[in-house]
Design a protein that fits this description.
The chain has 21 helices and 13 strands. The chain has about 550 residues and is an alpha/beta fold. The strands form three sheets. Strands 1-2-13-12-10-11 form a six-stranded mixed sheet, with helices on both faces. The structure holds glucose-6-phosphate. The site of glucose-6-phosphate (G6Q) has 14 residues, from loops.
């Protein structure tokens, strides 16, 4: 990303947005809808089979114009093009950021350091497809000659959250006679539960790690290897029961995995942007190569939309600008993502990493401390479950929490009554948040005087609603890419680097010191008193 001279709060559009907010912050959605019967059309985008209604956000036409001006003053268009053309926009790590290449068609050419990355991308995809066919058709046999029925992905962070989320989301498309499990936590219980009830002879481990040095993954992979060797009672069994996904061939070899059974990717794929790289191999085995290609095509459609659509109709751009508006002007510290589809139960967890690891930054691209808020906290649960727990605070609490509601017209399972109720709820929640119930309405219901205040819903709480036809692989791809690009837009506005994650390092380094101290009681402790006491608790054990 090129150096930005202008500080965010000095930009003309930012100053105008401050004035504009002061003028309109008292307006409420009831009034805005009443005064503008065309509001819903003006603030709804229909593209790529997505119905994106942001009319219940607290914006006016002028707001969107000023936010678009802000995007222009930030050079957003050029920055999008820079990402798509392989420029090294991850400046702190001096890397290109090319997750978009992972889902681009074969005939495309994208250069990094003068080299076209696309042949490599498609070569790996073809190898993944051949491998997943072998597993699904029962042609890949375990060490004792049995077909594989259980797939266990070992990985963490970006090498776990995408695969878990995609598996849960697309479970409907997976065969009933295979098990897919995911191990991430260093807590041995995670591995113990994953292998519980499974036969080693029928189990394949995928060790997914970009670096192949991540502590949790390597410890889990070593224990899994012990389990395989011990259960099958042969050291040679490893080659038929382990494959690797990594960029680090040497470490894969050292672990004992044949590099023939390694699927590579590249330093220009960030962990949290890697689910369409070989990290997606568990997804491909689960849903089959045709469905996996459909998933990729959905991502690609959204990539094209992001690159080519004018900002006024560009879904990720609008989402990103609304996020900035809500975060920096409405001062909302959090953003709820509420999918009304049980298959998307891990989607909020996936988005937590995508959004917060990307935009949880405190300095600008050139290292200056920001004097404005950056990435909000993303969180959520599927509806309708959340309605019976935390929605109370969203409706009547003192905090403003913008909500993204995500729903599908058609269900994947034929229980029509359930789906009508599900949809009625997603629609009702947005309506209740926006328009609430005022004093007059509460009183008209004959409410006892002492309860009137308790029953008032102030309303004016912002939300967006996304409706797609059905939870298909391509629609999942579109949804994920939509959030990925929205995160990028936010990063550009805040002038931060969404593609590094230096904030996760310190804890890792300290843990290495502490594990030595726990295991060797002779080591002197030189931490603060609280930390020393905690270490001592475990030494005494
Ligand atoms: C993601 C982060 C992080 C990473 C994990 C796993 O963007 O970099 O979540 O994915 O730490 O790393 P490895 O794949 O190298 O094991």
């Amino acid at each position: 990303m090129s150096h930005i001279e202008n500080h965010l709060t000095e930009l003309p559009s930012w100053k105008k947005l401050i004035e504009h907010y002061a003028q309109i912050h008292k307006l409420n959605l009831r009034q805005l809808f009443k005064e503008d019967r065309d509001r819903v059309n003006r603030f709804t985008v229909k593209d790529l089979d997505i119905y994106f209604d942001y009319s219940k956000q607290r914006v006016m036409g002028d707001t969107m114009e000023l936010l678009t001006q802000l995007a222009n003053e930030r050079g957003l268009k050029k920055k999008i093009e820079a990402m798509f053309s392989g420029e090294k926009i991850n400046t702190t790590e001096n890397r290109a950021v090319l997750h978009i290449a992972l889902r681009a068609p074969k005939e495309k050419s994208i250069l990094v350091d003068g080299q076209d990355v696309m042949p490599g991308v498609h070569h790996v995809l073809e190898r993944m497809a051949a491998f997943s066919d072998k597993i699904r058709n029962g042609d890949w046999l375990g060490h004792t000659g049995k077909p594989i029925k259980n797939i266990i992905n070992i990985g963490i962070g970006g090498s776990d959250l995408g695969p878990v989320m995609a598996y849960e989301a697309l479970k409907h498309y997976a065969p009933d006679d295979m098990n897919f499990r995911f191990v991430s936590n260093i807590d041995g219980s995670d591995l113990a539960e994953a292998i519980s009830g499974l036969k080693a002879e029928e189990t394949l481990f995928i060790v997914a790690s970009k670096t192949f040095t991540t502590l949790e993954t390597m410890v889990n992979a070593q224990s899994a290897r012990e389990w395989i060797v011990c259960e099958i009672n042969d050291k040679e069994a490893v080659s038929k029961h382990f494959i690797a996904v990594s960029t680090n061939e040497d470490e894969v070899r050292k672990f004992g995995i044949d590099t023939e059974n390694m699927f590579g990717f590249w330093d220009w794929v960030g962990g949290r942007y890697s689910m369409t790289s070989a990290i997606g191999i568990s997804t491909m085995i689960a849903i089959g190569k045709e469905n996996y290609y459909r998933l990729l095509s959905g991502f690609h459609e959204m990539d094209n939309h992001f690159l080519n659509t004018p900002f006024e109709r560009n879904i990720p751009v609008i989402m990103g600008l609304l996020a900035v508006w809500n975060n920096n002007f409405l001062q909302s510290d959090t953003q709820a993502v509420l999918p009304y589809d049980n298959y998307l139960k891990r989607f909020p967890a996936y988005l937590q990493q995508l959004t917060m690891e990307s935009n949880g930054k405190q300095v600008t691209q050139n290292g200056q401390r920001v004097n404005y808020q950056t990435g909000p906290v993303y969180w959520g649960e599927p509806g309708t479950n959340g309605q019976h727990s935390f929605y109370q605070l969203i409706h009547q609490g003192t905090k403003i929490i913008p909500c993204d509601f995500i729903g599908f017209k058609e269900p994947l399972n034929p229980w029509p009554l359930h789906h009508d109720y599900l949809i009625a709820n997603i629609i009702a929640q947005g309506e209740a948040l926006a328009f609430g119930k005022n004093r007059e309405e509460v009183e008209q219901e004959g409410t006892e005087a002492r309860l009137v205040n308790h029953k008032i819903f102030e309303g004016n709480r912002p939300s967006s609603t996304f409706i797609l036809p059905k939870l298909t692989p391509e629609n999942l791809g579109k949804l994920i890419a939509m959030y990925e690009h929205s995160v990028f837009v936010q990063g550009v506005i805040w002038d931060i680097n969404p593609f590094d994650q230096m904030g996760v390092e310190l804890g890792k380094v300290l843990a290495k010191t502490i594990i030595d101290e726990i295991q060797d009681s002779k080591k002197s402790l030189i931490h603060d008193d609280s930390t020393n006491a905690l270490v001592n608790l475990f030494r005494k054990r």
